[in-house]
Amino acid sequence: MSEATTTKRSSAAVRGWFGRQSLAVRTVVVALVAIGAYLLPYVGSIPVIGPQIETQGIDWPSSLFNMSYYVLLALGLNVVVGFAGLLDLGYVGFFAVGAYATALLTSPDSILHTEWAWLAAVPIALAVTMVAGVILGWPTLRLRGDYLAIVTLGFAEIIRIVATSTDTLRGDRGFSSLPHPPGTLPDGSKIFGVSDATPYYWLGLSVIILVIIGCRNLDRSRVGRSWLAIREDEEAAEIMGVRTIKYKLWAFAIGAFIGGLGGVLFAGNQGFINSQTFILQFSILVLAGVVMGGSGNIAGAILGGALISYIPDRLRGIQDPFFDYDLFEYRFVIFGVVIILIMVLRPQGLIPSRRRAMELKDREKEVAPQ
Amino acid sequence: MSEPHIETPEELDRANARPVDEAAPTGPAEKSSAPAAPAERDGDVLLELDNVTLRFGGVVALNGISFSLRKGEIFGLIGPNGAGKTTCFNAMTGVYRPTSGGIRFNGESLVGKKKHEITRGGIARTFQNVRLFPEMTALENVMVGADAHHKTSVISALFRLPRFWREERSGRERSLELLRFVGIEHRAGEVSRNLSYGEQRRLEIARALATNPTLLCLDEPAAGFNPAEKVDLLNLIRKIRDTGVTVLLIEHDMRLVMGVTDRIVVLEFGKKIAEGTPAEVRDNPAVIAAYLGVPTDAA
After folding, report:
1. What sign does the CA torsion over A230, A232, A234, A237 have?
2. CA–CA–CA angle B150, B115, A240 (5° rounding)
3. B10-19 pLDDT tens trace
């Protein structure tokens, strides 16, 4: 009895202040956070702390846009890894498929010679990414844990190597002159230009908000329950009537779709992609972000995704005092230390999912009973 | 010493024991037809195992098992450890595919069907070692079972279409009702890993019932229970039967089995050694031999 109450109390503490508020308070808080996110490009105007937050070696709106597609990737990976418990190490593959599909349809360098507008290419690119998700998912359905991780790792490498070494995908030369998203201002200038990344950030943020709503809706439905059941005991889930194959494929497809969204946005912003963009460490970084933020939790994935992009960008343009290197060059060292610290001090992630936190707590108990 | 003890019931029940004695040593062909006849006579056959054999490499886990369940009865499957009771369950629920033989449920073959198809077809089960989804609340666990008959698609969940709201509401109500039925409604919001052992067992039954089964298979539901809890469980099993669900019960505790079941099949080393009412089975020399290891004329 007393054990049950203590666990209850600690799980409530983990869920924190937010979970205890009324619906009205939560709505207001969410709205304020969203407005704050839209105003982030102007954070530099806040006296004293503003300039500390802004990046130096890269313009602040560009850094915010980088964060937005990292957050998208983290949200998508969170569906696969966090919700359904399928360890996917090759997630960047879907980002690449989305970006390349856009490039093939829009770039003048493409052998297709379609040269579509960016917006016209988006639905096709996303459909292609979802199909890629199912194609990866199908043969891996019987695999679990480590084996699944190895196969997905291979998938991302296949995409990268194909992109590097086939003529159609143009390797390092890449695709240039990709069109930007449409729209003109009243004064005739384009909304999505090359000089200011702020509109791209707002576009990315709007997509993120839609993705959050979608993920949340799925999580709080039979779909989310099925994923969780699969994660906890796949065989028992199937015996309780869960169509495990169907829901695992959906997890892959939805994850791929969100990753593809990131790729499409990235292509629309950069105007240029080549095979160097989609290296393996990208996948690992996003996975690290999800785990760091709190696997299985949407807010955690957002925070993790934003940090893995923000920390290196913030280090840009700062010289180390000894060798005058740009601190950006040390980003993986610093990053590694940060991740280790977080994992030691807060193994369930920065904003843990209620359930994941308890899983870890139980594991702790198993290691050190009493 | 104990031989005269056994002689008496054996003599008394010679008539009852006879068909069983025949069934054990004879070939599979005879056995398959034997149980079908009385079942048809006494009521509708719900589940029929026809000469089911299951081998794992050289090990014969089930050897030509045949029996049938009638609608509305409580049926016991008993036998010493390793007799093949759980294997029998697993063959029925699609976890293992029988090497040979047929399993029919409501006249439809179950062999080769997927686990979730069998569940949706009306067979639900619990597990010998409780297998709940530990990080889900009690209510969510039951709702996973209720989802088995829901048709909400990923799209309607994503866009919150009317069907989602309708099924989510009805699923929740039904799940709460089932938690009340098994007596743990007050724990609905608690993560299932925090429930007591007895509550977890009850929750498993509620989750299985949520799939709307016509046949509920309980795998040693009383394991680890004290006598008072066992009595409660007996009442629950009867209550479940009274709602029209047929119950198949695997159990070690002979007294519990004898008290609640209408008919019993006894397995030993993957073979059926007896079938009949509790009274018939209790006095069957082959059963006594299997449980106590006493040599008898039959063995």
Report:
1. negative
2. 45
3. 333 333 333 3
Q: Are strands B246-250 and B215-219 parallel, antiparallel or unpaired?
A: parallel
CB-based contact, A364 to chain B, within 8 Å: no
**Residue type at position A270:** Q
Helix H or strand E segment including A4:
helix A2-20
Q: What is the signed CA dihedral for A62, A65, A66, A70, rounded to 10 degrees? A: 170
Residue A75, token pair as written in the block: 């949200």
Q: Would you call B158 and A236 a contact, using CB atoms and an 8 Å cutoff?
A: no
The B residues from 80 to 109 touching A (CB cutoff 8 Å) are 93-95
Encoded tokens for A291: 């785990």
pLDDT digits (tens, 9 = 90+) for A92-111: 999 999 999 999 999 998 88
Is the CB of residue A353 less than 8 Å from the CB of residue A297? yes
DSSP label at residue A79 = I
3 state DSSP class of A130: helix
Which region holds residue A177: left if phi is over 0, alpha if psi is between -120 and 50, else beta? left
Set of chain B residues whose Cβ sits within 8 Å of the Cβ of A359: 135
DSSP string of A207-257? Answer: HHHHHHHHHHHHHTSHHHHHHHHHHH-HHHHHHTT--HHHHHHHHHHHHHH
Side chain identity at B244, as an amino acid letter?
A: G
Rg (CA), chain B: 20
Taking CA atoms, A254 is separated from A72, A133, A257, A271, B161, in Å, by: 12, 8, 5, 26, 18
What is the sign, positive or negative, of the torsion defined by CA atoms of A309, A311, A312, A316?
positive
Q: Which amino acid is at A279?
A: I
- In chain A, residues with a C-beta closer than 8 Å to the C-beta of B129 are none
Is residue B94's pLDDT more than 70?
yes
Q: Please spell the DSSP secondary structure of A170-211, one letter per residue.
A: TTTT-B--PPPP--B-TTS-BSS-SS--HHHHHHHHHHHHHH
- The ipTM of this complex is 0.83
Average pLDDT over residues B127-140: 93
Tokens of A246: 């169907």
pTM over 0.90: no
d(CA A210, CA A217): 11
- Write phi, then psi, for B103 (nearest 5 degrees): -125, 120
Does the beta carbon of B136 lie under 8 angstroms from any beta carbon of chain A?
A: yes
The pLDDT tens digits of the residues spanning A217-256 come to 999 999 999 999 999 999 999 999 999 999 999 999 999 9
Report the alpha-carbon angle B54-B57-B61, nearest 5.
35
**Residue A238 CB partners (closer than 8 Å, separation 6+):** A244, B114, B115, B116, B119
| pLDDT exceeds cutoff 50 at B23 | no
Encode B231-269 in three state secondary structure.
HHHHHHHHHHHHCCCEEEEECCCHHHHHHHCCEEEEEEC
Q: Is A217 on the interface with B (CB under 8 A)?
A: yes
